Every structure is written in C-alpha cells, then in structure tokens.
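Lecture 7, part B: from sequences to assemblies.

Below are the input chains for today's worked example.
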Amino acid sequence: MLISWADLGWILLSLFIMFNALSVVVLSLTWLERKALGRLQRRLGPTRSGPMGLLQPVADGIKLIIKEDIIPSSSEKAIFWGAPLIVMLSAFMIWVTIPGAQDAVIKNLDLGLFYIIAFSVIGILGLVLAGWGSANKYGTLGGLRAAAQLVSYEIPIIMVAVSVAMLAQSLDMREIVAQQSSYPFVLVQPLGLVVFFIAGLAEVGRTPFDIYFAESEIVGGPFVEYSGAHWSLFFLAEYINTFAIAALTVLLFFGGWQFPGVELAGYLAVIWFLFKVYLVILVIVWIRGTFPRLRIDQLMAFAWKVAVPLSFLTVVMTAIYQFYGWPAWSLTLMSLAGLVWVGYAIYRRMAGPASRVAQTKKRIQARQEELMAARRNRAERTRRG
Amino acid sequence: MADAARNVTAPPLDSGAAQARPVSGEPVEMLLNMGPQHPSTHGVFRMVLWVDGEKIVDIVPHIGYLHRGSEKLCEGEQYHQVITLFDRLDYIANFNNEHVYVRAVERLMGLEVPERAEYLRVILCELNRIASHLLFIATMGLDAGAMTPSMFCFRGRERIQALFEAVSGARMMHNYFRIGGLKEDVPEDFMPRLRELMPQIREDLEESDKLLSFNEIFLARLKDISPVTAEDAIDYGLTGPCLRASGVEYDVRKAAPYSLYDRFDFNVPTGLDGDCWDRYYLRVQECYESLSIIEQAMEQMPAEGNVLSSLGRRLVRPPAGEVYVRAENPRGEIGVYLVSDGSDRPYRLKVRPPSFCNLSAIRLMLINTWVADSVVILGSLDIVMGEVDR
Amino acid sequence: MLNSIKGMFITLLSSAKGLREPVTRQYPATGNLLQREEAPTPVQPRFMGFPALTWDEGVGEPYCTSCMVCIRHCPTQCMSSTMKDNPLQAEGKSSRRKIVDSFEINLNRCILCGICVEWCNFDAIVMSHEHEMSTYVRNGDRVDLPVLLELGYKHQKETDWVPPTKRGK
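Predicted structure of the full complex, as structure tokens:
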C-alpha cells in the first residue's frame, strides 16, 4: 500500500476545498475586473444583481451553465471536448503546490517551482487543440498564435524563476518565501520582477498581449466556436492563471505572506498574502485599461530581442553576485542598470515612428504659425480698409 | 515591409470570391472570410482574404449587405421627405448629409437662406463633424485593442447628442434642416448650452488624445502601416482625411467654399506619410479646427432673425434642370447630383458617397500587410456602410 | 516609454474621478426583487417620440378631422384614417364639421421624423415623449384611435401643451 486510506481521504478533501476556493476566487476576480475597469472608464460597472453587483458573476455562471453547448458539426469531437479539460487541468494542477501561508498548502514539494512551471506549459497544448479542433479558421489562427506566444514567453519566466531560485538556494516555495524575511527579492532583482511580470502577462494573455484571442481581429481565437459550459471552462482557466501569475509574482518577489517586522500566523498570513495578490491583480486591470494590443510579430520580436536576453542577464547577474559573494546592493545596482537598459531599448525600438511623429508635429506647428501670420496680415489689411 | 506595400500596384479585381487568386500566383494556405458579421468591419462589410500564414496576399471586398435602394427611393418621395432618407445615408454625420441635400435643392430653386439659419447649420454641421470624429477615435482605439479611449470619446459624443436632441428632438435622425432654412429656431437656452459644451468637448478630446495618440504601442501598431502616396490617393479618388493624410491639401470647404465657410479662419491639417497614424491624427486635429470654426460662428451669428426663407413651409416644385452640389463631410467629399423635371419629386438623385470611394482603395492598402493590420487599416478609412451601400 | 507612463497616470486619474462621480447612470428599473424604482433619464422638451393624437378638452373631442394631410406627407406611409360627420357639430357644440372616425399608426414603421406634426393644420397630432413601446407580438405596435388619444392626452398633461397655432410668436 503506497498511500493510506486516511491520507487519500485527506487529499481528496483538500482538492475539493481547493477547487471551491479557486472558483470563489474566479468569481471575485470577474467582479473586481469589471468593477475596476468600469470605474477606470468612469462607468458604474455591474450594479443590478445583488448589492453593488456582487452577485453578477454568479448570475453569469448560471447563465453559462444553462446555455446550450454547441458543437460544430465539422469539428473533431474528441479534441473539441477534451481541449478545455486540458487547459483547466493545468490551471488547477499548479495550485497543488502554491502556498497561501506556511501551512496553507495541499502538498508542498521540494521542487515546487519546477513543478509549477512544468505544468503551466501544458495549457498551451489545450489552446492549440481547441483552435484546431473547432474547424474554424479564426480558431486555427488563434491557436497557432497562442502556441508561438506562450512558448516564447515560457523562456523568460523560467530564466527569471531560476535566478530567484539561485537567490533563495531552493526550489521549495516555502523556502523561497522564508528567505525573504529580511528583504523581499524585488529590492535586489527589480529587473527580474519587470521581466517576470511582462512575460507573465503574455503567458496568461492579458492586455497588451491578448493577441491569441484578440476580439477585434480574430474574434476570440481558439474560443470562437465554444459556448456554454465548455467556454466557461476556458474562462475559469484564464482567471485562475491570472491569479496564479499574480500569486507567483508576490511569492517570488514581494515576500509572500511575510509582513515586514511582524510574524503573521494562521489566517492573518493568508489574508495578507491575498491582499498583496489582489493588489497585483488591480495593476493588471489598470494596464488593461490603458494599453492597446501589440501585433503578433512585434510581440515575438519583443520576446526574443528583449525579454529573453534580459532574463538570461538576470541569471548571469545573480550568478556573479552569488559567486563573488558581493553585498546585496551590488545586485540591486546591476539590476537597475539592466532596467534602464530595457527602457532605453524599448525607447529605441519606438524611436523610428516617434521621430517621424515629432517631425510631423514640427511641420504642423510651422504651418500653423504661418497661417496665424497670414491671418494677422489679413486682419491688418481689413483694418486699414 | 512598409516599402513593399508602398510599391504594390493592385491588379484588376476578379468578379468574385470563387475566382479570386493570389497576386503572386503561388499557392497560399488559407482563404479567410472576414465579415459580414465580424466585429471590426464597421458594419456589414465583408472581405475575403487570401492569407499566407498571417500575411495578406490578396483581398476581395464585398459590399451590398446594407443596400436599401436609397437613390431609387428618393425618386418616389417629395422633396421635403427626401431629407429623412439623407439622414440615414451616413448615419454618423446626419446634419452634414441633410445640409448637402437642402443646398442642392436651394441651388436648383435659387433660394436665399436667412443668415441666422445658415450660421446655425454650420454650427450644427461642425458639431456633428466632431461627434463623428470622436466616434472614429473611439473605434480606432478599439480596433487597436484599447478600451478606455472609446469610453472617453463616447462621453464627448453623448454630450453633443444631448444638445442635438434639445435642438431637433432626435439624437441621430434629426430631420431638422429644411429647404430654405430650418424646421424651427433653436431653443432659447441653445447658446448658453453651447458655450458650456465647448470646453467639455475639448476636455474629452484632449483626454483621449493624450491617452492614445502617442502611446508607444499605439504608434507601433499604426505608424508606417500601409502608407498611401499622394499620387495613389488621387488616382483612387480618396477624399477627406484619407487624402489629406497623404499630404494633399484639399478640403472642399477651402477649395470651393460653400455655405459660409469663406467667413471663417481655419486650417486644413495635412499628414506627412499617409499611413494609418496620419489618418488617425489628422482627424484629431480636425476636431480642434472644427471647435475654432464653431467659436467664430458663435461670435458672428446674428442673435435674432428668421430661420426659414420667405418660401415658408409648402410643397416645393423646383424648376426643371439639374445641379451638382458637393460638400466636405467628416469622411470626405459628398456630392449630390439632382435632376428635376418640375414636379414635386426628384426625377433622379445620385449620391457620390465619400466612404464608397475611400473604400475602393482597400485592396491597395491591405496587400502585404498582416491580418491584425487589416482591421486597423479598415478602421483608419472610417467607412460607414449605410453610405457605401446606400 | 514616457507616453505609456503618462497614459498610466491619465487612467489612474480617471479612475479616481470615476470613483467619485461616474458619468453614466443606472438604467431605470421599474421595480425588481428589492422593489427599487428609479426615474428614467429625462428627455429634452423637444424630444420626438412616437406620434399621438391630441384631445380638445374645451369641446370634448379630438382635434383631428381626418383631413389626411399627415398621411399624404408621411415618408413611410405608416398611417391610415377614416372620417365621419361630427355629431357634436349637429348639436352646435363644435365647429368641426367632420371628425376622425378611426386612426391607425403602425409604430414599427414610423421613423419619428415629425413631418406629420409639421404639416398638420389642426394641431391634431404631436410627437409624444413615449419611446419604449416594444411588444412581443408582431403587430403589437399597430395602435388605433383610443390608444393614440390616450398617449396624446398624457403628453398634453405632462408638458402643458399649447396648440401650435395658438402659440404667440
């Protein structure tokens, strides 16, 4: 007997609890996103169902479950059915080992970080299969875009995670958090945070990287033929992934449930952790409310020309810092220098169009001055008669 | 890529999708049917794209999904009823459409319009131009994936439409201009409301302008996408912002001043490269110009006076003859060719819609771009299908 | 890069404003689970809703004499009517020799252009402020004389309507 009945029961119970907790989280996320985005655009957001529209996600969920689940006749049935499950599975599997506090974890693994990254890649397969299996050209385009985008941005995420693991000298999530008791890693590795966050946005397909389901171009990409409960699985997975990226950002860079100077215990630690995660989510929503979407070739160029080299740079910098045993602030300086370089690189990337724009502006200004002068002359002449 | 697009000369169109072949003759991967139910084709426009991966190799546009036979309908309606049909051509810029039609009939009859009525018409038309351009900025942002500018712009448009409702009783299909003047004078609180509205529109416009126009990602999406040279633009009969973006300074309001436009000082902004960003930013600048025209009109307008000519309200029967009248709509030059046989209904009425002529260059613009660019390029043309299909 | 950061601040500012005073308002509810009721957004005085017939209270009959002017000028031919001899005129109470017998407007066809009101010589038709008249029946919006008079009377009461021909210039 590999596993006792009691352990099996305990695991099943905790999985059940995790499933429900994550569903509640997704409900709260949809509400938060719609409400925050509404206020950002000076709208009200959902108001009708429940106080402040709090029951809106529930109403949405009921509607999605009741809705007819249409399967296109030309689709590959098994794949069409299975794809959402694969996406869903990878989204949930990650959470087995993401801790919410010291003991709030289903099964802490020594190789936790490795496990998380390995399983998050499986979701890509589901997206590609969904796009291909629905026998829709928009779906195919979206699925291929998803494959290109997610595979490329996997690399920066892995490399930054490696540099964090080197800092903490562990792949165990609890150990990584424990290492940040004196200072969070964001202070020594800000470049890592920026790369990780941007790559994370691309990984879950949030604006400005919502390219594989871009509504205005390929009308939903892999999800275009899905409806009802199957579509809601994708929806669920997307939000769980967003939450996972936010949680990982907090765990790896903002010290998880560590409160500076105070030892939090029990529920307080979990609440503090959730508070941080929701703040990161709000930043994600804020970015969604500000930026347009990139094009697929620009996105790939950014991945391979900027994000991947920078993520390697973080690893090299961390290695040098570790090898020579320099003080922590030296890594901070190196990282900040890298960050400035990113800004400059993006600035240069955009310098072509921007300089043209400046030129246009200058020409317009010159013309306007000329016209103003002409107007003054005309007024002068009419005054003289 | 951009240079390649510049040098493309589009070969003659085949008759339909089934006959469509890629330009190069090489095999391509996929035929992508975009529209008529696509969210970004601005109505019921359909493009059949031949794509090689994500690159567009060839495109066949299909129009006619919104054909209502407006021109034929006009022959069956009396002259004052045709105004309601013109409201529904370019349903974003209703006042401008009404204006060009009533001017055509007035020209045919040799009618003098009271000055106050003409000033009010100009103010309303320019307000409508701003409302139309605000909608353009909003949809341009949405096509590029930005949500928030659209909300900012709709706020400004909503304020303008509330004023329109107070003036004409309807938010979009006004039916307010009459042959020889206006239906009735504007309400008493019109001028104070307009004065209050001007800074608000400017604020909404500036907010979305600051947020969107120079955003790096927005620039990367729009700058250098499908540039159209001045020669090509003239050859394809582009008018309005699409032509001016290519550097040609041609505006009917300046080239052949109609109505009262020779009394105002305003600039005709032009672009440098004729790419999508120029087409976008030119419209932003035009909004500011329109605001200045409205300010000047408010100063010059007589405070009192008749708003309907001596003809008054009665059935019009223009003398037999024909007339061609053109005007600068938000989307370009609109022309109305009107033939009268002396009866109370037009004998023939032909419209030269700006959207239709601008849309004809879509093939030149789209070949050799990306699928993601196609919606941006189509958005930058700013078509209204009601006008294209008539 | 700088413009993107500027954009972030603009949206932050906007959300601060949105938290204080959102521009949009709640779509009016006519009572739901919590029995809330909100007033609809007021329309402008000149708002053109569906056309309706007015009621001459002094005499106690409609203004309309069914002269067919509105019907002839309607661009969409959405109206029809019949007339009869006015019984009140025989009694000497009314100056109208003919009066409307039946009147039907197909509101699904009406384009709310207001031409009928403009051409009416008897102040008989108004554009009411009614604009939410959807029904579940295909011909549910073909309204007849009593409904039109009711709509018109409601409009007269709500807006202190004065017949256009009696309005001072």
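Note for the exam: Chain B has two domains: 3-62, 70-389. Keep this in mind when comparing with the next example.
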